[in-house]
Each structure stands twice: as C-alpha cells, then as structure tokens.
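Second opinion, please. Please look over this fold, written as tokens:

===
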Amino acid sequence: MSTPMGVTFGSLGVLGPKAVVDVAQLAQGLGYRSLWTVEATGTDAFSLLGAVAATAPNLELGTGIVPIQLRTPPLTAMTAATLQALSPDNDVWLGVGVSAPAILGAHGAPMPDRPIARMREYVALLRECLSGESVTFEGDFWQVKRFRLGVRLGERRPKIVMAALNPQMLKLAGEIADGVLLNYIPVAHLPESIARVREGGDAKIFAYVHASCGQLDASAHSARKDIFNYAMADGYANMFRAAGFAEEVDELRARHKERDRDGALAAISERMIQAIDFVGSREEVGQFMQSYVDAGVEYPVLMPMPWGDDRFAVAKATMEAAIG
C-alpha cells in the first residue's frame, strides 16, 4: 500500500509494556510509517513512545489520545518536545482529545463544560507553548505566565492531531489542527465525517482501523464486549446511531438499564461487529484496511485486536495482513 500506515499499541496493552519494543520493531520491519499508543488508565503514552524512539528509530510517533483534562498544555508541550528531541528526524503526531467519563472518573477529573471552547483554547495555548517563545496566556480555562519551553527544537516540531467524533468537533479539528483522528468509525460513515472536517479546513485524515485475523464465531464475544464499552459513552453512541446502528445501540442501552448484560451484548449484531471490529482472513483484513483508504482516509492506523489464545501471534498476523 502506497498510503502511509501506522499501527497502535493501544489494543495490545494486555501484552505488557515491554512488548511495545517487539511490536515497534515488527512494525518497522513490515514497513509501517508510525507507531501510536493511548493514554487512559494503563501505561502513559510518552514513556512507551520514548522506548520506541530508542529501539525503532525509523518510526514516526503518535499519541491517540492524550486527554486534555489530565495534562496542562505546557506539560503536554514539554513531553511532546522531549519526544521530538529523541526522534528529531521523524514526525511526532501529538493526538489530544476530550476523554470519556469513565476514564476521567478513574482519575478523579470532572467532565468538562464547554468542550468545544475548551479544546479550541487548549490547542491555541499548546501551539504557543511549542513555539519556544515566552508565553503569557489569559484564557477562560488556562492562565500561564512567562512559560518558555526549555527543550530546543529544530524546524521539525510536534504536529497536533485532534480526536473527534461528532459534527462540531470534526469541524473544529479541520479548522485548528494538523490532523484529525477518527476512531470506531464504520467505513460507510466516513464520507459524512470527512465532509464535516473539510467544512473547517484541510487537516490530515487519520483513522483507527480495528481488525483481527481469525474466525468471527470465535471472536464475536470479545468484539461485542469491546463495542459495548464504547456504545455506553454518549459521544460514540451518537456516532454509531448516525452510522446506521441506532437499533443496536438503543436495544443495548435498554437491556443495560434493566441490568441484563447478556442481553445488552446480544443486541450487538454481527453486521455491527464487522463494520467496527472486523474479524476475518488475512486477505479480508487487507481488503478492510484498503476500504478506509478508498473512502478518503489519508493515513490509516491499524488497531490489531489480539483475540485468540496466542495474542501476539494474532497481532502479528493482523499487522502482516493489513499492510499487504
């Protein structure tokens, strides 16, 4: 595939932090352009990517995402600049976003009010902090006095990528970010989401592509549990509904409200699984990845779902299949 491709360690935390080195070296050998990781309640993103910079030096590095509620813009600028200094010849894709209630609750952080305004201000201040100039900033959410980034960078600086789901955030990402990261998005919903981004501007379109080499009947329960966790978050639920899965989401939530977890999981159809967490043969996984490119994604990022007795083997097979 001529399109640049990344792979995320975000789904592979079950392998343990040290496995990021093996995954990164495999990715580099297979020809992936970048390695990404998440930040929620497991590993922190920048420690893992520092290890990648040292052991797979040809890879671009990405966070997808760093919650803006948990890191101040100056701290995010410091950590991203440190990573850029460790990997001066490669792009650093600094993915930021408004995190989900469950993750924020685990950190003791409240859900933010005015998320669009908060994100706009965060990105504006983050850009100033990355400039290397002295920054004094008086905003509605952050106030900074005479911050100056102590890491000296060359012309290459971290690029800001915004995670976005719904129309207002997609448009904002197009306007103010270098890239937009789409997640759990079915191919059929891509044209509408990309159009929203383009209303704002020309941000590069990234998308996590969830896939696993295997048999659907063996992996369906794992896929249903994965989708369930996201369908319980309002932002993802609204996106799933807009993508054509309103019946599944409404039934899932109704069964969950009745404390019927088995019924809630059963509400997730095989059609929904195969649109969001695809399971299939190596050839089919490659075709699924290509379908995102054909639909307008400029930089797909594989999220290998390690469903099987040998999780690393499944991840490896999926990475091999996706890059073709």
In short: The mean pLDDT is 96. DSSP finds 13 helices and eleven strands in the chain.
